[in-house]
Amino acid sequence: MASVLRAVSTAMPRGVSTAEAARSTGLARPTVHRLLAALTAEGFCDHDHKAGLWLLGPEMYLMGVVAAERYDITEIARDHVAALAEATGESAFLSVRRGEETVCLLRQDGAFPIRSFVLYEGKRFPLGVASAGLAILSFLPEKTMERYVEGHDLASGHGSEHGQGLLRLRIAETRERGWAVNPGLVVEGSWGMGAAVFDTAGQPAWALSLTGIESRFSTDRRPELGRLLLHHAHELSKQLRGEHAFPVG
């Protein structure tokens, strides 16, 4: 049932058809329909009969509000995301690790008029795909990182550049610099950079990132963007630990 609910969540805000949910989960279509109907009866899903699509229901909203008191850092992070967008002119984001994926929680567009829409609120990527997921994966404990890389064939779904050898190279580069770079590997011409944000246990649980067109991420400019990302990621991590942080801006 959890995989079916995740399929609905991933398809928001459009919603998902029964057939799409079946393909996503690998379950038989009648089984998926039965599970979706049961979730709808309990308020966890809604069914748009006219469009034939399933969406998240009101019970999910109520549960999310309760869970947010413990897990949601968006209000604390919002100033950092806004400051990154203002300072760089690019689109800035906060993403969170959820198991083996990242989920975008916040987006703030900068002043530069040409934007990339690869990442948006609610968008999910596997760890290691896109700059936020690469930043988080790179700073996981060594055994955890290795187990993930060995156990996932990212190349089959996201292109040969996500093969294990090249992924390990990008992880090593990210560890050396402190910040991750996605050189147009998700969508050609759309670049991204990210830095991990650490929880109170010292684990990379979130990431701040920037995206934009390739010309805005030149070799000369990347170090400047990296320093800004690391500054805000470090200050946000300190805030989450209850330590004094410099004013955002």
TrEMBL record:
Keywords: DNA-binding, Transcription, Transcription regulation. Gene3D superfamilies: 3.30.450.40, Winged helix-like DNA-binding domain superfamily/Winged helix DNA-binding domain. Residues 1-58 form the HTH iclR-type domain. Residues 59-242 form the IclR-ED domain. Signal peptide: none annotated. Pfam families: HTH_IclR, IclR_C. InterPro entries: GAF-like_dom_sf (IPR029016), HTH_MetabolicPath_Reg (IPR050707), Tscrpt_reg_IclR_C (IPR014757), Tscrpt_reg_IclR_N (IPR005471), WH-like_DNA-bd_sf (IPR036388), WH_DNA-bd_sf (IPR036390). The keyword Iron does not apply. It comes from the Bacteria. PANTHER family: HELIX-TURN-HELIX TRANSCRIPTIONAL REGULATOR, ICLR FAMILY, HTH-TYPE TRANSCRIPTIONAL REGULATOR RV1719. This is IclR family transcriptional regulator. It comes from Paeniglutamicibacter antarcticus.
